[in-house]
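Side project, low priority. Logging it here so it doesn't get lost.
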Amino acid sequence: MTGTVDHLVYACEELGPAIEHIAALTGVRAVYGGQHPGLGTHNALLSLGPRTYLEIIARDPSQPRPAGPRPFGLDDLPGAGLRSWAAAPGDLDAAVERSRAAGFDYGQVIAGERRTAEGHDLAWRMTDAPTLPAQVVVPFLIDWADSPHPAASAPAGVTLAGFWLAAPDPRQLSARLHLLGLDLPVEAAARPALRVTLSRPDGQEVVLA
């Protein structure tokens, strides 16, 4: 049982300025990914490895306001930054059941989709993404099934060099991640926090939090 960090979610007010900010930080410009129909969002993607990527996500002004709240707290965003992350546990359904039996309930598995800039539809299965800032350390789970993994087509050159989590109860979070096949460092802190180190094409390292 081996899980992976599937992607990091960088939430922002406007997609264009955030793409330029991340490009200046990492040395690689993210490419427009597409729209999330019905959610009122769109994104841009930057590969961080063979099966890992950075998703920059913002409200999509070309879509009507959705019936429910937009994901990742985008309706009331205090500022741009990492707001969530996704884990790919291998067998999504088995991981959900295993975690539920241990007292960690990810809720129901739902279907997701995105229309790419080329007009193609990507589909996946996932659990609901946490929306509160205090839940930033808890991943949502995802399975791309037969869809191409976004990291394969996103601009490359940046790699995920470090992944750091902090939580008031680090043992509980570590146990939760272990059930997903993930062995990631978790430190004790008064408030939950997520920080990653990215390696640029020139070898320099930068931090996103």
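Brief comment: The chain has a mean pLDDT of 94.
Revisit when time allows.
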